[in-house]
Specification:
Structural class: mainly alpha
Largest sheet: none
Number of helices: 5
Distance between the termini: 36 Å
Pfam families: RNA_pol_Rpb6
Keywords: DNA-directed RNA polymerase, Transcription
Protein name: RNA polymerase Rpb6
InterPro entries: Pol_omega/Rpo6/RPB6
Oligomer: single chain
Shape: elongated
GO molecular function, one term: DNA-directed RNA polymerase activity
Helix content: 55-70%
Number of strands: 0
Length: 107
Amino acid sequence: MSIKDSKAELSTVTYDKDKIEKKVGSIYEAIVIMGKRAEQVNAEIRAELHGKLDEFAVHNATLEEVFENREQIEISKHYEKLAKPTSIAIKEWLDDEIYFRKTDDKQ
């Protein structure tokens, strides 16, 4: 599933703590896993956005031309409307779409 097609919440939602910690037994461990996934999602979105904005980049533009570039403004507005990376990570966690593994310290 694409990040853009995610059905993650766009606003603040209260989640059931028991559902979140059920897979690993610790709310803190679940938060760390979701946080790392949110960082990955954020990096993907940022790279995609910069790639699209670079298509319109003019390196010798005047200040007026920069503010008048409607394509860049529309692309930026589209990305602002997407769900936040944290919301996407929580949704993936609750839908069992995140792969994680524990490493044992006893080796």
